[in-house]
Design brief:
Layout lengths: L1 H17 L3 H16 L2 H24 L15 H16 L3 H6 L1 E7 L5 E3 L2 H7 L1 H4 L2 H9 L12 E3 L6 E7 L2 E8 L1
Parallel strand pairs: 1-5
Antiparallel strand pairs: 1-2, 3-4, 4-5
Helix pairs in contact: 1-2
């Protein structure tokens, strides 16, 4: 339960930093509250979602070459580690490699596309398709982003050229992971 709450908190902070739509955040929080207050069936569904999330996080750790899980929060991440993670995101975006981007992502994740909002699983994310996720505006923003001197915040780090489109990441369950994509 603590992991789920921590994930929700990180998502909320990401939305605030990026100026994301508050409705998506409210839905995520309401979904969490509904799960907590729901029936036994809801508890079973949550367990299945946690299994999927844990699998995605394990894959992210393996693909990120992060062999130890241990960041307490975003302020514990040094600028070198943040830059290395951002470089991986930039490569995935440049190559339009949705699988690589998904491997760097913690689910559920906010994807600020029309009619998308919170994407619960890696499979749902991949089903969006690279042509949908990698918009020209997002690709240009990520390409032009300065990742040399990241400064941590409660919401994490933002890869952006300073305009609207960005990819946010931060500490999720002790590792760096993407926690929001804004357009």
């Amino acid at each position: 339960m603590k992991k789920k709450r921590k994930r929700v908190i990180v998502m909320v902070l990401s939305f605030t930093l990026a100026g994301a739509v508050l409705a998506g955040c409210s839905k995520s929080q309401q979904s969490y509250q509904d799960t907590q207050q729901g029936s036994t069936q809801s508890v079973q569904q949550e367990s299945q979602q946690n299994t999927i999330s844990n699998k995605a996080e394990t894959e992210a750790v393996e693909k990120n070459d992060q062999t130890t899980v241990g960041y307490e929060d975003n302020f514990a991440v040094d600028s070198k580690a943040a830059k290395e993670f951002a470089e991986k995101v930039k490569v995935a975006a440049k190559d339009k490699d949705l699988e690589a981007l998904a491997a760097l992502t913690a689910f559920p994740v906010y994807v600020g596309l029309p009619d998308v909002g919170v994407v619960e699983t890696k499979e749902d994310f991949l089903n969006l398709g690279a042509e949908t996720v990698f918009t020209e505006e997002l690709l240009k923003s990520i390409e032009m982003a300065d990742i040399e001197d990241f400064q941590p915040s409660m919401a994490g780090f933002s890869i952006s050229d300073g305009k609207t489109a960005n990819i946010n990441f931060g500490v999720v369950d002790g590792i760096l992971a993407i926690n929001g994509i804004n357009y």
